What we know:
Blueprint: E1 12-15, H1 17-21, H2 30-41, E2 47-53, H3 65-70, E3 78-83, H4 86-95, E4 100-106, H5 109-116, H6 120-137, E5 140-146, H7 159-173, E6 177-181, H8 189-202, E7 207-211, H9 219-228, E8 233-236, H10 257-260, H11 276-289
Parallel strand pairs: 1-2, 1-8, 2-3, 3-4, 4-5, 5-6, 6-7, 7-8
Amino acid sequence: MSEVDGSAERWQLTDCPRDAMQGVVPFIPTERKVAYLSALMEVGFDVLDAGSFVSPKAIPQMADTAEVLAGLPETDTQVLAIVANLRGAQDALGHGRPDLIGFPFSISETFQQRNTGGGIEEGWRRLEEIRDAVDRAGRRMVVYLSMGFGNPYGDPWSEELAANWADRLHRELGVEQLALSDTVGKGDAQVIEAVCASVTSACPNLVVGAHLHGRREQAGALMAAAWNGGCRHFDGALGGFGGCPMAKDELVGNLPTEVLMEAPAAWGGQTRSWNAEALSRAQEQLSSLF
């Protein structure tokens, strides 16, 4: 995970096998998940979004998250787990492995209902509870501002609304890291740059990332837009797989991690070195997993 140009800008990359796997209907055996994620843990990513502590009825593919996380090797890559309520956070914190706890907070009332079984007001209450539990445990949080670039449901959305919610989360709940999330691929490059710029300008002390969905040929342009808007943390999924099954819409996948691994060097970002053998091992497993 070394950087070779000290004068260039630092940036971070999260690979999201959880997001890639969660909508797959045939259950992927636990041992195959562990083998795949173990290879990813050795590539050199900053964070691995490795699972979620949520109801197995809602996301059956994630029912074995506790066992999967227990089987992962110790590397410099931090482990992230997603939760939807306080019980999930307590399970994740009690497990001991996740370094980071993620919570999806949507500025779309419809999607917050679909994704976590409660609206925006309920989501705020849950997030406050989870934040307190995470703080007590000495861990860190990432809040995903989902539908941050628009939504397909006709719910209110604007660049200003996204920036206002980010500011409120930062000021009122003490959120330190936010991932602007384009759950259904609504944002084009112009919108993504504008929203990222608005949020980074309004919240200069907030760590702002981008979790974008789009087609492979769009990946470079969408990531460049987020970079130009001030984001320095990026999410992808190897192979570009994934999409939230709770959206119940036709989805495009995650941005392919393999594209994101090299792109920032062209924009003044630090050149990163990766474990090519581990990456190849993970890529060999992709076709049989998905």
